Amino acid sequence: MSGIYIHIPFCRKACHYCNFHFSTSLASANSMVDSINKEIRMRAPTSLENINTIYFGGGTPSILGPEKINSLLSTIQLHFKVDPLAEITLEANPDDITTENALAWKAMGINRFSIGVQSFSAQNLEWMNRAHTVKQSIECIEIIRSAGFTNFSIDLIYGTPGQDQQSWEEDLKMALELKIPHLSCYALTVEEGTALNKMINQGKKEDVNPDEQAERFNSLVSMTKQAGYLHYEISNFALPGMESKHNSAYWEGKAYMGFGPAAHSLQGKTRSWNISNNIEYTRSIQASKLASEQEELSATNLLNEYIMTGLRSSKGIDREYIRLQWGEQLLGLIEMEMVQFLQTGKLVSTDYGWKLSEAGKFFADGIASSLFIID
Ligand code: SF4
Q1: Sheet containing 317-318: which strands, arranged edge to edge?
Q2: Residues 6+ positions from 88 with CB-CB distance below 8 Å
């Protein structure tokens, strides 16, 4: 066992690009916290398991305030053996971070924030329908630093409609000037069913432009490199020693348990996921029934996941590991498919396998899916 993930399915406003599972009604917040606490008790192992990371994600966990987060954290601590040095992250939106809250979260053991800044441009925040302002983003960073937090990350989104190269570079300059220890930077994707998708279909917003997104990605890579950040995963950049332990464990295929609606878990070859419906979830848990489904991952599922996460990481993928785990034949198929990417310089050989070149990084997901083995 490595990590615990808690999904808090509430947000103040619906961001126009978001397709995560959340509700903007907080009416059921108390019963949701009771249900997640009960799910933790129901699924807790009989012998204490060692937990190295805990991650409150969502949704917007910070919207619950310190008391409810403390209730969930206390239940975890009661039923699992949490390493005294465990990384405990709280996803927070800038408008929820006050001095009082930050100090209370620190006192209960939260030691890392992941803050949904998204942009330092007021215009960008407005079309995204974010609940916070640029001023609140800058203030919240001062608040958490004053409260004694040294480990935190901000999310930024690039390649959004109306964002030009200059505006993106200004976002990055601000993040670098603020010496944010960790940056998670994502190219905007337009998901089915979102308000953004509708706006684009109705001609009210421009569609995303992959060439412009590649240009933004290139400046992201070069500016962060110059500022001393390690590009340790395609979308993640850390000052030395500030890499996210929780996310790194996901990418290394380590086991984790997820609690709350829509949360996923992985244990060995079994992946399970809770129902993405707040009412159904609480009803089922209150009736002492888990509201989840599960699947057994096949050998090729596991291989494809290894290729995807390995290529997205700075370490790349390990030839010998593939040979030992999945055999010569599948390794041969992957090597055959790789030739085109090695010839075009998107992949490079390393001492033990292969990794993406600088030129190949923006195409990580496409290259990985070309290498996938189909059953
Ligand atoms: S705050 Fe985060 S989870 Fe909530 S709607 Fe916005 S992007 Fe989605």
Answers
A1: 317-318, 353-356, 347-349
A2: 53, 54, 55, 73, 109, 110, 111, 112
DSSP 207: P
Q: What is the tens place of the pLDDT at every residue in 304-317? A: 999 999 999 999 99
Report the distance separating Cα 49 and Cα 3, nearest Å.
10
Amino acid code (one letter) for 298:
S
121 lines ligand 1 (CB under 6 A): no
Ligand 1 centre from 21 Cα, in Å?
9
- Residues 118, 120, 124: CA angle, nearest 5 degrees: 70
The residue to which tokens 């959004």 are assigned: 160
Q: Is 44 near ligand 1, meaning CB less than 6 Å away?
A: no
pTM of the entire predicted model: 0.95
Report domain 3-251's class: alpha beta
Residue-wise pLDDT for 232-250, tens only, equals 999 999 999 999 999 999 8
List the one residue out of 83, 12, 46, 33 whose CA is nearest residue 259: 33
- Decide whether any atom of ligand 1 lies within 6 Å of the 299 Cβ: no
Nearest atom, ligand 1, residue 118 CA: 7
Which CATH number describes the domain made up of 299-371?
Answer: 1.10.10.920
Tokens of 309: 């996460």
Q: Is 61 in the pocket of ligand 1 (CB under 6 A)?
A: no
Q: Where are the domains of the chain?
A: 3-251, 299-371
- The enclosing H or E element of 55 equals strand 50-58
Report, in this order, helix, strand and coil percent for the chain, each rounded to 5: 45, 20, 35
